[in-house]
Amino acid sequence: MRLNNTSNRATPTGAKSRLAVGLMSGTSVDGIDAALVQISGLAEIPRVRLRSFLTTGYPPDVRNRVMHAASGEPLTAQEVSQLNFLLGELFAEAVLGVCRRGRVSPKRLSIIGSHGQTIYHQGRPTQESGWNIASTLQIGEPAVIAARVGRPVVADFRSADIAAGGQGAPLVPMVDYLLMKHPRKGTVALNIGGIANITVVPPGARPGEVFGFDTGPGNMVMDSLVRHFTGGRESYDPGGRRASRGSVIEGILREALVFPFFAQSPPRSAGREQFGKVFIEQYFLSWPRLRFEDALRTALELTVKTIAVALIRFVFPRFQMHRLVVSGGGVHNRLLTRRLRELLPQLSFHRSDQFGLPVDAKEAMAFAVLADRTLQGLPGNLPSVTGARRAVVLGKITQP
C-alpha cells in the first residue's frame, strides 16, 4: 500500500527498503503511539507502508505526573529527570511491542524516531521567565530507548527548528507534503489531536509554497472538561455523544473566540500553555450553573469554528483548495466531523485512511519518516510552515 497519490512514480534505482518505528505521545497524554513503518525509495520521495500499530496507555500515576508537568505545575529537577528516564523505559517497551505485533525483529530497524512527550513548548519568544526566548522540552530519554532496543534513535526534533528561528512546530507538514501533494488539487491536511493543526499543500506545490499552523484546540478543551465533570473517571466523550445532547453557550463561545491566539497570523503553534488549565477555568468553569453537556457542545463548537475561521482567513484568500484530509483522534467524534462538513462545504471531505495513512497512526508514522530523513542528512522542517530562517536537519541521533 503506497501513501503517495503519484502512483505512477517508479522507485528510484538502488533505493533500499528499510524499517523504522515512529513514536508519538501528544498533548492529550493518552499514551504512546508506536508505528512500525516500511519505507522504500529515496528519502526525498518516499513510499511508506504501515506494518503494525500499537497504542500503549500510560499507567494512571505516570499519566498524572505527566499532566502535572505539562500543565506548568512546579516540579523539582529530580522529578523531571526521573520522569524523563521513566518515559524512556515506556517508549522502549512500545517499540518492542509494535515489533512483536508486526512479527519483526527489532534488529531489523534502521532507525527509531521518537517525538517524546512535550512538557513545555513556547514557540514564540516570551519574557515570562525574565528571558525573551522561545524554548521547548520533550522528555522520554532516547539513550534508554536505544539501549533497550539496541537500535539508533532520533529524538528532540523541535529544537533545531527553534534554534533556526522557527517555532519548532508543526513538523508533520513535511510528511504531508511528501505524501499528499497533487499536481492539480489543493489539499488541506487537518490533524485533530489535543491541538488541531493544518498543512496547506497548494496544487503542484514546491516545498516553499507549503504552509501550516496550529488552528487552536482540537480535543484538548473537550477532554479537560470530561475529566473535570467526571472527577477523572473518564477522559473523553466517545463519538461526541454527550456533546450532541448539549447546546452551545453563545456567551462562552463569543468570549473564547477573541482569545488573542486566534488573531495571530501564521506561523503559530500552541499547546497546554495556551489551552490548558488556565484557559478552561477562565472561559468555561467561571460560567455560572454550567451543565456538562452544554460545556462539551460549546468546546466542540470552539474547535470547529476556529478551524474553519483559520482556513477562511489565512488559506482560502491565497490558494484554491479542493479537499480536506482529516486525521487524529477527533475523527472519531461524529458530531465534530459533521460540523466540519457543514462549515466547509466547498471542500471534499476525506479521512486520511483513504490515502493509506490510518487516522490514529498518522503522526507516529510521520516521525518514522522524519527520522529516516535525519538519518539521510535531509532537512525535516519546512521554513514556510515554522518560520525558521532555513531548512535544517532535525533531531539528535543516539546510538545504542
Which regions have little confidence, pLDDT < 50, spanning 5+ residues?
A: 1-14
- CATH superfamily annotation of the largest domain: ATPase, nucleotide binding domain
Number of strands: 12
Largest beta sheet, briefly?
7 strands, mixed
3D shape: globular
Structural category: alpha/beta
- Please work out how many helical segments DSSP would assign: 14
The proportion of residues forming helix, as a percent range, comes to 25-40%
Number of domains: 2
CATH architecture tag of the largest domain: 2-Layer Sandwich
Q: In percent terms, what proportion of residues is strand?
A: 15-25%
For the record, give the distance between the C-alpha atoms at the N and C termini, rounded to a whole number. Answer: 31 Å
Q: SSE order, as H and E?
A: EEEHHEEHEHHEEEHHHHHHEHEHHE
CATH topology-level fold name of the largest domain? Nucleotidyltransferase, domain 5
Rg estimate, integer Å: 20 Å
Mean pLDDT: 92
Query: Class of the largest domain in CATH?
Result: Alpha Beta
